[in-house]
Amino acid sequence: MYFTNKIRKPIIRWLEDNRGLVVLFFCLPASFIFDLVLRFKVWLQRSLSNVPETHQQRVAEIQKQVAKWNKEDTRQRKLLCTSRPNWLSLSLTFFPKDNCHKVPINLYSILELDEKNLTVKVEPMVTVGEITKYLIPRGYTLAVTLEIADATLGGLAMGVGMTTYSHKVGLYQEAIQSYEVVLGDGSLVTATRNNEYSDLYHALPWSHGSLGFLTALDLQIIPVKPYIHMKYIPVKGQKKYCDTIRELSGANDKDRELDDFVEATIYSKDEAVIMIGNFADLPPITQWGKINNLARWYKPWFYCHVKTFLEKGEREEYIPLRQYLLRHNRSIFWVVEDMIPFGNEPWFRYLFGWLLPPKPAFLKFTTTPGIRAMTFTKQVFQDIVLPINQLEDQINISEKLFDTYPILVYPCRVYDHGDHMGQLRKPRPDQMVPGANYGMFNDLGVYGVPGPVKRKEKYDAVQKMRAMEKFTRDVGGYPFLYADIFMNRKEFEEMFDLTLYEKVRRKYHAEGAFPHLFDKVRPEIDVFEVGKQYIDPL
Length: 538
Description:
Helix content: 25-40%
Number of strands: 16
Transmembrane segments: 21-40
Membrane topology: Single-pass membrane protein
Subcellular location: Membrane; Peroxisome
Keywords: Membrane, Peroxisome, Transmembrane, Transmembrane helix
Radius of gyration: 23 Å
Domain FAD-binding PCMH-type: 44-224
């Protein structure tokens, strides 16, 4: 064992020190080929099943499989889950699906666009990339559109999502008009805010597939223009940029006229660039020089482009709408920088930028147990919903625990739905926007390698993340559950209100049919034991 560790550590150190070359000459080409194969497989699969007219037939097949499962001996049958491989999801965890009865959910169609009621009906496996390609040429987009093209609309519905439009509409769940779900007894129901299944409707967000099989969604859409007129506002001083974010988000005044998009990228404790965007038509010819096709392979990564305004000062430009919505896709926010430190250099972008981003599915497909352990002990990937009135505290504790920048901030409404909050709790009185029925929160996005890890210092990732989770519980926030959690069951139920969730599990035949939410989202490895092994620098 000693000899093995003596060899292993230098190898891992070399891979860390030369990770950019390893990614460039192996991971990116392999990811590209992997993506081509996967695209062909998905195309073939969708060609066979992507027929809106056969939706009911394909849902009936799912019901048939669940009904067949119900006839099995209850003492021997396994819990239900989808057959979709873990590596195709954007979650960091690897739920042990081999311990479950897997049911194929081959639902990839965009079913109906209702321009009168401003909704689109989709099957759950439709991706963000596909829906933006479909809607934008028709003059629409989703009210809440995630920035990563590979995210599925069903995955977001069963989890959570928010974007830079969320200061106007709230979390992704607020834009869902109805869910079509196959329950644990094989029955098919449609849940809306006001029908007989309204309790199920409110419990499905944040449930991560633990209440039933999602088969269709009705999503709110909004009319759009082809461009976003962006304004970049560099701000120095923590209080000043926090106050400005709160003001622009409408956190202080419910009657404020809001920009369509509001976000901030924080580059240090005292420096940030705040961005406001509004839908716009093609600018006049005299302004064409301000059009930025930022999604082109040779263009600087978006967050690096934004950083230049700390020196340039306030500027404005026009960005094609779809390119704005997927602006972080090439660099996966700023995660790719830790993989390819020279990735934003002009020579790399012009020669190899077309290979980006490395496919999340490929990264997960090639994850070994050792790499999996390092994803949470040597890196941080967290999106956390927190009250915006404590934005300064969020940034300070993030710096103390992780010491990594940039940090992403998206303002977002969290509505007070009274007794219908689902797994969330009502915003506290001091978090409410005066005179409104919602509080103003924000997504705090922390991604990358913590400072102590970069400096080859000891770093107890488990202790740091548990401290962040405690802060989140204390202020009434919630982590996105795609990322690793470090809470025990008791702490989890202190953070999330599972009262309605447990009632719905019993009422709609999920108990004994689907895994519990906590079991679906907790890491598949012993984070405490693995954390101890990786405290020392490699």
